[in-house]
Amino acid sequence: MQRAALTATGVYTAPYVISNEELVAAYNEYARNFNADNAARIVAGELAACPESSVDFIEKASGITRRYVMDKAGVLDPQRMRPRFAARRNEELSLQAEMAVAAGREALAAAGRTGAEVDAVICAASNMQRAYPAMAVEIQQALAVERGYAFDMNVACSSATFALDIAVNAVRCGTARTVLVVNPEICSAHLAWKDRDCHFIFGDVCTAIVVERLDAARSAHAWEVLGSKLATSFSNNIRNNAGFLSRCEDRDPDDRDQLFVQEGRRVFKEVCPMAAEHMTQHLASLGFTPLQVRRFWLHQANLAMNQLIGRRLLGREATVDEAPVILDEFANTASAGSIIAFHRHNTDLASGDLGLLCSFGAGYSIGSLALRKC
Q1: Catalytic site positions
Q2: Is the pLDDT of residue 234 over 90?
Q3: Nearest to 276 by CA among 208, 368, 141
């Protein structure tokens, strides 16, 4: 068995920023228009009025102050309230592939690697823009990964950590020496921007991670993977019913269940203890306790969730140094969130420091990797 390490990361940041102030202004105009257009039905009790949003509501509910998106104008158009993307020809690089290639090149450069040295590409994200051919195979070609294999996978917000588990095991078993994991998340495309309770949640980004044999690592900031742990438990509390059968069921693409839906309070109550227990058990299996962990890179969905998980792990509030937060800037970026936190906050630690990377989300799914700085 070979020793595996995370040796480099890359991040592609979407080109546009939407502040909470901009988002609230656009949403409230939509809400006022909706209420005016449906005034008679609302008075008759046939339809609920659309409530207005506020910056204070968003920041108290989530800790988010802004988000990066692939398209801004469409989201902020009260008559549209969704991104506007131009269709690309089959001969052109796909949108998600374009994001992944940019993040992947950054990660490979940081690892001192070229595409020719990569054995596998895993594209792991909460949504893929098409069914086939796999996005990963397109990315493989664009990065000149001339050998090996590539495939897509989806475990919602845990896609990145589940893919890392597969990559680590491939390296340990010797079926690959170097694996590139990419996570192109265009969450703005499946967000219900017309729903006050969630219109602020998501942003767009792509992360990339290089996993390779520790004895071959060229990076000055390699992290050995001591162990990984995955868990799933079925729940309907986070769901998106859009799929290839939708057209056969004569669904309207704008139907609410064709977009992101969640029972937020239930998710909070159920996932936080599950995630804390998962991480505690994972560390115990390796002979560690949470108090020995120098840094936690947690899923970036909601500030209050991470604060509660920190208290359950440590018996006190976790400091921002112990559990860095990036969701205030990026919002929830599904599987990429914990990877952004790791990307931004891992190079300052010392050799021998222990870290834990963890994601949790729809499924329910939870994935964690225990890491030690080399």
Answers
A1: 157
A2: yes
A3: 368
